[in-house]
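User: Structure please.
Assistant: Input sequence and predicted structure:
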Amino acid sequence: MADKTGADKRRSPDTNPSPVAEQLPVVRPPAVPGKAKSKIARKAGQPPKANPTDALPITPQTARPGRPDRSQLAARKMLRRLVQGESPPTQAMNLVERLAGSPYANPTIQVGGPDVGARRTLDFALSLAETMFRYGAGALEVETSIIAVTAAFGLDNIEVDITNQSVVLNYSAKDQTPTTVLRVVRSWTNNYAGLTRVHQLVTDIVDGGVDRAEAIRRLDEITHRPKPFPRWMVTAAFGVFAAAIVAFIGGGPLGSLISFASCIGVDLFSRQLGRWRVPEFFATATSAALVTFIAMLMWWLNVPIAPALVVVGGILLLLPTGRLVSATQDAINGFPVTAAGRFLSAFLVFAGLVSGIAVALVMGTFIGIPELDVTTSEGSQYPLPVVALLVFVAVAMICIAEQTDMSLVVPTSLIGMAGFLLYSLVVSLGVGYRLAPAIAAVLIGMLARIVALRMGAPQLVVAVPAVMFLYPGLTIFRSMYNLTTETGVAGAGAIGLFNALTIILAIAGGVVLGDNLARPFTKKLSSNERRRNRRR
């Protein structure tokens, strides 16, 4: 018993007792035989720090020696949160956190620890990224897909670097030699159906239902699978789209028929230029010149048409709509190099378009074609329900031209019709011609994200065809006509061309804005975002 009392004295916190402590007796709880030592003494191996309150008389019922009460602990914890924060501000961001807000959040990890076949996973991720870029996906979607797939297959230490035409992956596991792989994308094609299947493949991988061998087999099947629509149907779709657009902006049946025939001929000629490996700039310029020259010849032959409207039906097909939307999306989402490359590529196509129009106008003036009628259009000759139906048909034809999956054609066309109805309402309220297309594009971007995720597709696949009718093709043609043939109004032509470019960028920005506004409403639309699929 004496030994135990001596041990208690050695553990006493009163290392430097004050005079008060010498005059007043310290009351301690009686030692209980067999009672375990305190956790503080057992962990630190030394007496706890002195506490000024220990010098005052206390009882076992009021406090325990050497340990602050709960109120003091809560106060210290609150003060630490206010001063320090939840985590250091310079702490590195976990790469998987980049998936927050994307359709691939919370991936299911299929293996525990580093993957022994890391190189095969990296090669698969590169092939996946290359396929998505070739089919028109944005940089953010490609990055999130790579992160989701590599995380699901057990590679945590991944760094992704994406530029306009290349993807670099670096895998540096702890105590292992780093591995860096590079893939350059050198070709593009219209295949929104393939992009939709890639999106579904990534979703299945993230859900944990597809292993790596099965994923490699499915990706190879996607890349070798035929497109949903044959080439002759795509050519016919170009013609029907042009005819519907001419009727939409105010042309008559004869103008729609001429536009239908000319666009089919231009598409066949463009296909031949592609076989000859003609650069895209010259192919676009040649196609635009051919469409414009055909309209001018019809005007010279006194065919009762509005040549400007006929030209618009053809040049809308040549605008790099998907590239502009992807470039705007990349710029907003923090991919400046990729956005700059895509903007430059899109502007070159745009420059080829206006150059072709200018060449055709100069040639027409040289051979004596009379001055064209490029006056302001009074709008469509048909009632609003018929115009809405024309928009539905035009969007459906663009879906066919872009090789969209057949199940998405009708939903995409309905979204385009909804955007047109909002556009008509906004215009009737007096909103300017620059802002009205952007407002309609915001609605189309929101609906496109909701519908696309519900049907297992990326937002871009639905949004790009649905906004095509909003682009200011008539403004582009009038501006180029003023710049080329009307010397007294060259300044007005330059201003009109700038306004057209502003509207195009506003439409692309509206699509991206709508996509971001719809994200809070689409958290539960993707199976891989369910709570039960959190990473294990």
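The radius of gyration is 34 Å.
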